[in-house]
Amino acid sequence: MTTALTDVKFACLDTETTGLSPQAGGKICEIAVSVSQNGRKLEEFTTLLNPGMPMHPDVIAIHGITNDMVKDAPSFADILPRLLALLDGCVLVAHNAEFDLSFLRSETQSCGLRLPDYPVVDTLKLARKNGRFHRNNLGVIAASLGISAEGAHRAMADVRMTEKILYNFLHEFARCGVCTLEELQKYQFKRHDTAVLGLTPLP
């Protein structure tokens, strides 16, 4: 059974965190999700989260989220029911998806639940296999495609960049005959013969 890309609800997601890994004690301090289908926005959700721990100045310097900003924010447990309802029936999309998923799994487990096994599309993997960019980080890809990076390193700004990058890939793949979710997922791991995205030539 195959799923037409026009029928897929994509949930582009990003997290900002207190550290580099949940195994080292990192927690989510901001999350954003944008759900769309066939290029049409369906719903957005974003919130700061109280991680229940102080954030190191080095981390604050990256995303600009301060301890004062999150002191009265909800906990992850508070927003989990809404998050799960929002993601239900969606394909998750993120740039370096395993980073965000590792935190989501850990936070969900800490609430006594298991994160569902959503289908995943990773724009970083698509870029590595089917892109031609100077580097494959979110900001460089966005700049190469003429996408604004304003507000980068805040969750919703990064989500909107990821979403636009996704649809650039979908447009390019559609031009080359890729029209199902299963085909799209395949090209995270192998290069398409003709679908190459990247307006900035390699040096």
Across the major sheet, the strand order is 3-2-1-4-5
Sequence stretches where pLDDT stays below 50 over 5 or more residues = none
The CATH superfamily name is Ribonuclease H-like superfamily/Ribonuclease H
User: Which secondary-structure class do the elements indicate?
Assistant: alpha/beta
First-to-last CA distance:
42 Å
Strands, helices and their partners?
Layout: E1 9-17, E2 28-37, E3 40-48, H1 57-63, H2 67-70, H3 76-87, E4 91-94, H4 97-110, E5 120-122, H5 123-130, H6 138-144, H7 155-175, H8 181-186
Parallel strand pairs: 1-4, 4-5
Antiparallel strand pairs: 1-2, 2-3
Helix pairs in contact: 6-7
Protein model, in words:
- This protein is an alpha/beta fold.
- The protein has one domain (5-186): Ribonuclease H-like superfamily/Ribonuclease H (Nucleotidyltransferase, domain 5, 2-Layer Sandwich), CATH 3.30.420.
- 39% of the residues lie in helices and 17% in strands.
- It has 8 helices and 5 strands.
- It has helices at residues 57-63, 67-70, 76-87, 97-110, 123-130, 138-144, 155-175, 181-186; strands at 9-17, 28-37, 40-48, 91-94, 120-122.
- Strands 3-2-1-4-5 form a 5-stranded mixed sheet, sandwiched between helices.
- α6 (138-144) packs across α7 (155-175).
- The chain starts with 8 loop residues before the first strand and ends in a 17-residue tail after the last helix.
